[in-house]
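Hi R.,

Quick one: here's the Fatty acyl-CoA reductase sequence you asked about.
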Amino acid sequence: MDDPLPFFRRQTIFLTGGTGCLGGCLLYKLAMKLDTAKVYALVRESTERGVSQLKDIMPNQIDDILAAKKVQFVVGDVTKKNFGIDPAVFTEMARTVTVIVHSAADISLKNSLQECVRRNCLPVLELATLASSFKRLSKFVFVSTAYVNYHLPDGVVQEKIYPAGDAEKLLTQIMKTGTVPVGYLHPYSLVKNLTEQLLLSRNPRLLILIARPTVIAPAISQPYPYYSRHGSCPGSNYVQRYMEAPDSGIFHVSPLHPTGTNIFDEVPVDIAANVILLHIMDGTTGIIHAGAGSYDIIDHFPHQPGSRRPEFRYLIDKRVAQGRYAEFLKIFGRDWYFSSAASQKFAAIEGPLSIALGNHDAGKFMSDRTRRLRDDVVRRRSLEGSTKL
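And here's the predicted structure, written out as tokens:
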């Protein structure tokens, strides 16, 4: 593959979700590592609020990002028509933007189906409509999730669409009644599935890349080691919940997948960002996965000092109560392997977009990550007036 720097120096990117975990990592790489011509970064309410949010997650990098003068913050709201963008700014973007990357999402698993559609589906369709007026656009990137295919049995999941029903009919039914006639992990996974189908079926002329990361984990190295955004890494959330109140470790499974070999598939956020950027550069369209089965949180699961290692059990018998956090991470009870065949050709790539782990020690990384999470719990407990853990 060619050097990515000349390619990105010719690109003007419109990025949504740039103050989130993955979006912030993409923003950093585009501005600081790839010397992108320009990045329009959508922020809510004001530029000052966007800068403040970035300062929270990248305190030692934000000044350099601003000094590079590559990023123009665009005030808007994905839930509004035309994203609420000032018409003059939108006209400028429509004239210059070459790549749209939509990474904005409300990742809460507690939203109702209708609310999840309003926050995670309709904005994508609106942006695709807006994209038709972008004169130089060469790529529309939608960040989905590997868990859109919640309805599949355990085993290999390919980089393709697996319809969970008629998307148009399901969307209509959800907005009318708030219900659907099929089971699903949670509204987020179902809505992302519908969004993928609707985006592709409604926009046949748009050059679309759908990126499906697995569970986002803290960064290996960029913007800095262990970079993340509070609440954006489900594995870290689960670890901290366990530290605060140990769980039984029991997960209900169906007779179709009682394997006990379940992999909690995490991908470091900087690796996920590199995968997406590599495919943008390579001109990929269609669907790609970004996962890392080697990051098995069960193998390195933390425990409190003096307590025994938690025993994870996968039970078909639902008469036995499952752990209190099992509803939080239903994917723990599943055993999917997400194919990343489309990215194999990038394995030997070096430089700013390398996805090779090299000498990275996953075990040590998880151990250090756990210590950091425990320190954070201790700090919060201390603020609450208790130092006991």
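Confidence is low (pLDDT under 50) at residues 293-310.

Cheers,
M.
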